[in-house]
Fold:
Amino acid sequence: MPLVAGVDSSTQSCKVVVRDAETGALVRQGRAPHPAGTEVDPYAWWDALRAAVADAGGLADVAAVSVGGQQHGMVCLDGSGEVVRPALLWNDTRSADAARELVEEAGGGETGRRFWADATGAVPVASFTATKLRWLARHEPANADRVAAVCLPHDWLTWKLAGAPGLDALRTDRGDASGTGYWSPRTGEYRLDLLQRAFGRRIRVPVVLGPAEAAGHLDPTALDGGTAAGPSGAARSSGGGAAGAVGPSGGAGPVLLGPGTGDNAAAALGVGAGPGDVIVSIGTSGTVFAVADAPAADPSGAVAGFADATGRFLPLVATLNAARVLDAAATLLGVDLDTLGELALSAPAGADGLVLVPYLEGERTPDRPHATGSLHGLTLGTSTPAHLARAAVEGLLCGLADGLDALLAQGARADRIILVGGGARSAAVRRIAPQVFGRPVVVPPPGEYVADGAARQAAWVALGGDTPPTWSIGTPEEYTAAPVPTIRERYARARG
Structure:
């Protein structure tokens, strides 16, 4: 019974699952928190990974491990492999002006957007790595001068698991590479000319691996206790206890490293999504994405034409405001999330006209990085906790429903909608979603689907074959309800 491990290094935490490679049965798991903020020292992720591995009982008996990670984050390394500055995360919007510059320099307006959509599958927004590189070159030239290589969060963690063997050993996959702004899902090649356009010069980037191609082997000493250190030996503080000895898998050989992937591609792999499936993920960010057989190129910028982790494509719409909208509403009302859901379900559909436009951290889709949230339709009758709770849930879902419309406009199929993520655990979200989306919603059993997808990729690497192993994720629940068109109509008027 070979075992494999999958890692989800997300914005808020690191999760590790160990599963049976052939059946997908969960053997054990662990987790550790990440620091808050929109820029983070990557060594905080490394410390959390070590702690989560320790919490999961170590990796001494696994055959392979893969890392799924938050997309877009900019990890810059100098010539010796040291981190140049804290990583700018996907939700850091300081590069919004840089994104606009890149579109303007390509002709501006429809011409500029079409250029980028054709070249990379997506129009630059503040989330993308290319825009963050432009910001770095403009605002921190001394740091920019030190940069020898740029990689993504999952790339860096995979490299660290391999023992940080040198910049030429950096590896990534097509799913995460497609979110950089300088790799083309259509051609499967880097656009280094666009990297140079963004940063001012060419720098080293990771080699892009195939879906089941090994990225190397786990360094048996990488997760040892003590201190975490970069390639130059500079000591870093290390959180958590020792991760346990890491050795060959049952004496059969060294532990393989999978190519890893971005969190959304990993989630699609984790739920076993295929063509015709649309996944709506409600986590720190909100994402709506479909598995497709052909690449997308949307010049409006609403749909990013990413690649997936199987060799297909993953057209995707992302919002900055998702589960934390529920957190904010619960904090405002002084209740926990379960009570927020009960309040929301006690109010009528449409909240009697109360509408929350939840741009609490700016917004990515639509591209309004400096926007703030707004409440519309507040009257004496709607000034109740129940109405506000309902408006929060409906506002969150309306933003995602707009994303679904954008995918359908690009030719995506929506044979079924799969609802996942922390926000999907809310009974109110599950029951209200069909009213907003206008179609039934399938909710798999609660799970760590990004980590599960990474584990499934690790199993694919370990077992070989043309396709990933077939795993059962349990019996999903289906939620149906009559659509309530007025919810989205009022939201559209309030959103403007």
